[in-house]
Design goal:
alpha+beta, 32% helix, 78 residues
């Protein structure tokens, strides 16, 4: 139980300070770990969808490692 309590003390976005000017992230506790991989995949899916839309492709489905973005109609009209 004590191990779980200790681990929970190092979890959560509330332990992360984010400031826009200057842009930075600061950990409130040294044991906090950050995995930006999930953010990167979602960002990439958003960027690819935006690129498709800029090129006039309004019906699309983008999936990058589980992050998905869809717009328009499928080939079945749904």
């Amino acid at each position: 139980v004590e191990e779980i309590r200790t681990a929970l003390g190092a979890v959560g976005h509330v332990l992360l300070d984010c400031t826009p000017d200057p842009p930075r992230l600061r950990k409130r506790t040294p044991s906090l770990a950050i995995d930006p991989g999930g953010i990167g995949k979602g960002f990439a899916a958003d960027q690819l969808a935006a690129l498709l839309e800029r090129h006039g492709i309004t019906n699309h489905f983008v999936a990058i490692a589980g992050d998905q973005r869809a717009r328009g109609l499928s080939d079945k009209g749904r």
